[in-house]
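Reposting from the mailing list since nobody answered there.

I have sequence plus structure tokens for a pair of proteins and want to know whether others read the tokens the same way I do. The first protein:
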Amino acid sequence: QVQLVESGGGLVQPGGSLRLSCAASGFTLDYHAIGWFRQAPGKEREGVSCISNSDGSTYYADSVKGRFTISRDNAKNTVYLQMNNVELEDTATYYCAADGECDFSIATMTRPPFGPWGRGTQVTVSS
């Protein structure tokens, strides 16, 4: 069964850091592009970052460029999102999803191309 499990969220002060993890089971991550998405209360889910499966290219939403870094550890079948200098606007539930290539438009899909949306991990930025 294809499954992605997000973890690492929590409460952090503005300017602080968190590292989110996306662990895969039932399939091999390195054959897929993996994206991070987030949904804030009252807002639609949006793409945050993505790492390709072909050449490791990375993509970021303008709102997180220079602050977030996506990486993958194929040996651990896990993708990470390092969040630095977090802002109040980063408060959201964060999800990861697999795709054939990086495509933020899957944020609006009821079901991503590979496996259902997971439970996500909550990130709350508050002083």
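The second protein, same order (residues first, tokens after):
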Amino acid sequence: QYQLVESGGGLVQSGGSLRLSCAASGFTFEYYAIGWFRQVPGKEREGISCVGSDETTAYADSVKGRFTVSKDNAKTTMYLQMDSLKPEDTGVYYCAAAVRPRASGTDICRSTHDYNMDYWGKGTQVTVSS
């Protein structure tokens, strides 16, 4: 059975850093495009950092230059390095994976609905205090 398990969330002060991890199991991780998505109460889920099947990366404008997404196929784990955190980065962060031939990072970050991606993690809370 597949699993995506996020870790690394927590409470951090504005300007600080966090590194989220998402460990994958139960499927052939290297064949999957991956993404990190953020959900804030009252707002739609947003794709913030993604790696496409073509290995291109994409970032939401709000996190460009501050967040870095990476994928380690050997460890079947994806990461999200978050630096210079701001209070508006607060939310629940989800990792997701999908087999999407020829999909770019931008395509993956647009895939915000449950049915767009094959697998989703349960989410980890990130809270940035001012």
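Reply #1 (J.P.):
I read it the same way you do. Residues 105-109 form the longest helix (5 residues).
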